[in-house]
User: What shape does this take?
Amino acid sequence: MTQPYNHTAIIGAGIAGLACARALAAAGRQAILFDKARGPGGRMSSRRLPEATLDLGAQFLSVRDATFAAAVEEWHAADCLAEWPTSLWSAAEDGWHRHRDDLRRLCGTPSMSAVTRHLAEGFELHAGTRIERLEGDPRSWWLVDAEGGRHGPFTQVVLAIPAPQARALVAPHDTTLAEACAAVIQRPCWAAWVMFDTPLPALPGVDDDWQAVRLADPALRFAVRNHLKPGRGDQGESLTLLANLEWSETRLEDGPETIAEALLDAFQRGLPGDVALPEPSAMGAHRWRYAQPDVFATGEAINVDYRLSRNGLALCGDGWRGPRIEDAWLSGHHLGDALTGGSPAT
Ligand SMILES: Cc1cc2nc3c(=O)[nH]c(=O)nc-3n(C[C@H](O)[C@H](O)[C@H](O)COP(=O)(O)OP(=O)(O)OC[C@H]3O[C@@H](n4cnc5c(N)ncnc54)[C@H](O)[C@@H]3O)c2cc1C
Assistant: This one.
């Protein structure tokens, strides 16, 4: 397929790729997105089962940066975000305690992917298209997908994908970018879901409508009641259980059923008092191989949260800044600014 010359290709329609596309569009530059998944979202995507919609990746976004806060206001006004959790707890030896701080947290409604679907509106997105190879010369790039389809030529290619995956694509063309990717470690995380036909029992000392809890278990770090997120009133009791990264590393090749059972056991152990959970009606787990960056890219005089090469290749995403949605968005947004001559904020 031949596209008009001079366009930008963005590989990865997660929040970073979409932020970059939006920043380019705001400056009048066109971008075409490619994603191997069925739709946009990446680690903000949600799983749709007949009985429920489950967030198995990011559970909420938190807001620290003023530029990000302005973008969040727009998404909020577009009704794809709502304040959540409003009932957040932390587990301790002596029971669960309500967690309070001043941080603003919001989740997508009716699912996390509502935000990325909103951001993808108006863009040409080639979903279900895994890019396996880059070909061509600097400033005249072709993208080759898993079916052998060729897309291009493009003067600029943005790789908004986890650094280990970006490394494989840039290595034949740019050793500096490949080395930068090698310095970013993205750690895995198992995410389990468990559904129940009956509501969870009341927990001593905890509000009945508790929404999420941080746990200090070696296996389990966070449990969320999916059905109590805004916009999901029509689904039954369902939990998302996020594993610790260290634990996930040691159980990487286990089957999803084993993982779901282990995380449900950990949740049961973390309940206050002597409370027994009802029998689950269904459960499963998803493995995120590149869930969270651990070592953020460092390097001489690099104080920006993206990488940009003169040959028309560029990298953005959470690995270049930090482990949150906000970081990924800022990385993509700053790269978009830099590509259109705006000031690359640090
Ligand atoms: C379990 C879990 C829980 C989390 N919880 C939170 C949270 O509560 N709050 C928070 O702020 N952050 C959280 N995060 C982190 C947050 O989700 C990420 O930082 C953010 O979504 C990363 O966005 P991104 O655009 O950089 O990458 P991604 O979302 O990974 O997007 C990359 C996209 O590239 C596509 N892709 C990859 N390779 C190719 C290829 N070769 N060709 C085509 N497409 C390709 C993928 O399909 C994907 O859509 C969590 C992450 C996980 C995994």
Notes: The pocket of flavin-adenine dinucleotide is lined by residues 11-17, 34-37, 42-44, 57-62, 130-131, 160-162, 165, 189, 191, 242, 288, 291-292, 317-318, 323-325, 328 (CB under 6 Å).
